[in-house]
Every structure is written in structure tokens, then in C-alpha cells.
């Protein structure tokens, strides 16, 4: 029984290390999102750090319109990046979790 606990602890530490490595790797995974008409393009990492914002010059002429574009497009980009982030981290966590009866959280 003690050996099983040591094995589980080792597996958990290994999984924790893989999760940290995955988080670092997600800093290099880029997610692009554009407004429906292509006037605004946002790129962020899967860890939800904004890397670039490109916009048509005409958006600079109307503050309210620019704000609306930014809100809508940023929210879509963050949602997309969050899905990538959660899927990647869940896959690593599921792969490394020991088989503990009743603890099937990632199925």
C-alpha cells in the first residue's frame, strides 16, 4: 500500500511538471481572431496574452465603433484561446492522473 502511495505521488509530481511545461508551450501557441468584416485582427497566445492588434485606418475615425470592435473581437479571441488552453491542460492532466476509484474528474 505504501508503495502504491509513493507511485501515485511520483505520478502526480510528473503530471505537475508536464502541466507547467504545457503552460510554457502555450505561450508560443498563437490564436488569431478577426472582426466579421476583417477591419480588426487580434492575435494572442493560448495563455491569453495579447501579441498584436491590427486595424483598418477607418476605425480610428470613430471612437465608439473602435471600442465596439475591440470588445467584440477581444472577447471572441479570449474565448477561443481559453478553449485551446483548457483542452491542452485537461489532456495533460488526464494522461497523468493516477487511477483513483471515484476520482474520474477528467473523463
Automatic annotation (TrEMBL):
The keyword Cytoplasm applies. It is found in: Cytoplasm, Nucleoid. InterPro entries: YbaB-like_sf, YbaB/EbfC. Its main location: cytoplasm. The keyword Cell cycle does not apply. SUPFAM superfamilies: YbaB-like. Gene3D superfamilies: Nucleoid-associated protein YbaB-like domain. Residues 5-32 form a coiled coil. It comes from the Bacteria. Keywords: Coiled coil, Cytoplasm, DNA-binding. Pfam families: YbaB_DNA_bd. Binds to DNA and alters its conformation. May be involved in regulation of gene expression, nucleoid organization and DNA protection. Homodimer. Belongs to the YbaB/EbfC family. This is Nucleoid-associated protein HC176_06855. It comes from Tamlana crocina. The lineage of its organism: Bacteria, Pseudomonadati, Bacteroidota, Flavobacteriia, Flavobacteriales.
